[in-house]
Every structure is written in structure tokens, then in C-alpha cells.
């Protein structure tokens, strides 16, 4: 005598089938998130590109100035002057480069805040639509179930 086992898979399928599910809300949420990620990636990549340009320019200028320091001098005092000139030029380049990095960071911060505000608004609208649609569908399903 074999005991009949319950088919839980079928039971779950039937139970979940009784509740209407519309995946369009999830699709819209995914599209909104993907759009946000795309925009953020552009901000990050642009900042990385600008930072790289600043670093490369700073390095190139430093190497150019260092060449003057390494040249042979007739008077030992000329070495001191060359080092002093190099240190002065390096301080100025450092200041300029740091200011340029700060501008890049400021731009990234402003664009990120703008994107976050826009994304929050978009996500809020998507959530409101999804909740309203789900409520309407559940109400319709409940009415249909009680009418039977």
C-alpha cells in the first residue's frame, strides 16, 4: 500500500497562479536603474579621464623641469639655483594641479547629486505606479474571488 504524497509544486503553482502578476513594473524599475547606472558611469569615466590628463600633464612638466636640474653646471652655486628654481616651479605646478583635481571633484559631486535627485524622483514615480497597479489588480482579483 503506497501512500499518496502531496504535489507541493503543483499546489504552489496553483496558489501563485491565483494572484495576477504583472512584471511591467519590474521592467520599468530595471530600465530606470539601468539608465541611472549608465549616467553615473559616464560621470565616473569622464572624471577618470580628466584626472589622468591632469596627472600626465603634471608629470610631463615635472620631467621637463628636472632636465634643467640635471644639466652640467660650471659653477657649484648654479646647482643650488637650479634646485631652487625646480622646487619653486614644482610648488606652483602642484598648486595648479591640485586646483584642477578639485575642479574635477567638484564637478563629479554636482553631477552625482543631480543624478541622485533625478533617480530618486524616477524611482518614486515607478514605485507609486507599481503599488497602484498592484492594488488595483489585487482588488479586482478579490472582487472576482468573492463573486464566485
Provide an overview of this structure.
With 148 residues, the protein is mainly alpha-helical. The protein has a domain at 38-107. 87% of the residues lie in helices and 0% in strands. It contains 3 helices and no strands. Helix 2 (24-70) runs antiparallel to helix 3. The longest helix has 72 residues, at 76-147. The radius of gyration is 33 Å and the shape is rod-shaped. The two termini are 38 Å apart. The mean pLDDT is 85.
Distance between the termini: 38 Å
Number of helices: 3
Question: What gross morphology would you assign?
Answer: rod-shaped
| Content-based structural category | mainly alpha
Compute the number of strand runs.
Answer: 0
Largest sheet: none
Give the integer mean of the pLDDT values.
Answer: 85
Proportion in helices: over 70%
Order of helices and strands: HHH
Which terms summarize this structure?
148 residues, rod-shaped, mainly alpha, 3 helices, 0% strand, single chain
Amino acid at each position: 500500500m503506497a501512500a499518496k504524497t502531496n504535489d507541493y509544486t503543483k499546489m504552489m503553482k496553483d496558489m501563485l497562479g491565483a494572484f495576477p502578476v504583472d512584471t511591467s513594473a519590474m521592467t520599468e524599475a530595471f530600465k530606470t536603474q539601468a539608465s541611472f547606472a549608465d549616467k553615473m558611469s559616464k560621470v565616473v569615466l569622464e572624471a577618470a579621464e580628466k584626472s589622468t590628463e591632469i596627472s600626465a600633464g603634471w608629470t610631463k612638466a615635472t620631467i621637463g623641469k628636472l632636465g634643467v636640474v640635471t644639466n652640467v653646471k660650471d659653477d657649484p652655486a648654479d646647482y643650488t639655483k637650479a634646485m631652487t628654481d625646480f622646487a619653486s616651479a614644482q610648488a606652483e605646478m602642484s598648486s595648479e594641479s591640485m586646483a584642477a583635481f578639485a575642479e574635477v571633484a567638484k564637478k563629479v559631486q554636482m553631477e552625482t547629486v543631480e543624478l541622485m535627485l533625478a533617480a530618486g524622483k524616477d524611482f518614486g514615480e515607478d514605485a507609486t505606479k507599481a503599488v497602484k497597479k498592484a492594488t488595483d489588480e489585487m482588488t479586482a482579483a478579490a472582487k472576482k474571488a468573492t463573486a464566485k
